[in-house]
Amino acid sequence: MAYKKPPNLNTKYGRRRARQEAWENYQKMTPEQKAEHDQMGCFITLVILIVVGGLIYLVAGPKALLKWLSH
């Protein structure tokens, strides 16, 4: 198999090609692999939200956290 040069993400074509390759790789996954991939994405999102909420709580206090959560 020939070496495939990675797309240049600084160009519109390169970003489109990278997005297309990622979509093709996702479509080739088995349902179990897709579930694991999606679960990992949800876990990372949850961790980021908890960290952001903790930072808001530490910097601005509980009132700011409640205001952020209510929006």
In short:
This protein has 71 residues and is an all-alpha fold. Helix content is 79%, strand content 0%.
Word description of this protein:
By secondary structure, this protein is an all-alpha fold. The protein has a domain at 31-71. Helix content is 79%, strand content 0%. It is built from three helices and no strands. The protein has helices spanning 12-28, 31-60, 62-70. The protein is elongated, with a radius of gyration of 19 Å.
User: What string, H for helix and E for strand, traces the elements in order?
Assistant: HHH
Structural class: mainly alpha
pLDDT < 50 stretches: none
What composes the largest sheet?
none
Helix content: over 70%
Fraction of residues in β-strands: under 5%
Tally of helical runs: 3
Mean pLDDT across all residues, rounded?
Answer: 93
Euclidean distance between termini CA atoms: 51 Å
Query: How many E-type strands?
Result: 0
Instruction: Tell the overall outline.
Output: elongated
Element layout with pairings:
Blueprint: H1 12-28, H2 31-60, H3 62-70
Keywords: Membrane, Transmembrane, Transmembrane helix
Task: Give a quick set of tags describing it.
71 residues, mainly alpha, 3 helices, membrane, transmembrane helix, transmembrane
